[in-house]
Write a structure and sequence with these properties.
By secondary structure, the protein is an alpha/beta fold. It contains 2 helices and 8 strands. A hairpin with a 2-residue loop joins strand 1 and strand 2. The longest helix is centred in the first third of the chain and has 16 residues, at 2-17. The relative contact order is 0.23.
């Protein structure tokens, strides 16, 4: 009986550790990031989609992420275009659209370890 219980526990742990990463969407619309706050798992991907007529920038306050985005040409996301980033680092990452900070166009991504509880 103990062997079966141990086998089931090991199988459940294996299945949990092999859950696929998810893709989340953030819209840039009405001079806002929607949702403004998002919690994701480490390894997940975010796709930002610009639905406004004007171009938007995605500027992270975390220097490492900002440099990665700069190399991926996230300085300007035109109308109808998208920008994608996979998050391999846990933490809380604040970002903004620098040209539209007057509209309070800010967002926060919280990246948690896979085993942590997610809330959106």
């Amino acid at each position: 009986m103990k062997v079966w219980a141990l086998t089931i526990i090991c199988l459940l742990l294996f299945l949990k550790s092999s859950l696929p990463a998810e893709t989340h969407r953030i819209e840039m619309i009405d001079m806002k990031f929607k949702p403004e706050y998002l919690t994701i798992k480490k390894g997940d991907t975010i796709i930002w989609e610009n639905r406004d007529e004007s171009s938007h920038a995605i500027t992270f306050f975390d220097e490492e992420l900002h440099n990665l985005l700069t190399t991926k040409r996230f300085k300007k996301v035109r109308h109808g275009k998208t920008a994608t980033l996979k998050f391999d680092k846990s933490g809380e990452f604040e970002y903004s659209c620098i040209p539209h900070t007057g509209f309070k166009m800010f967002g926060t991504i919280t990246v948690v370890e896979e085993s942590a509880k997610l809330s959106q």
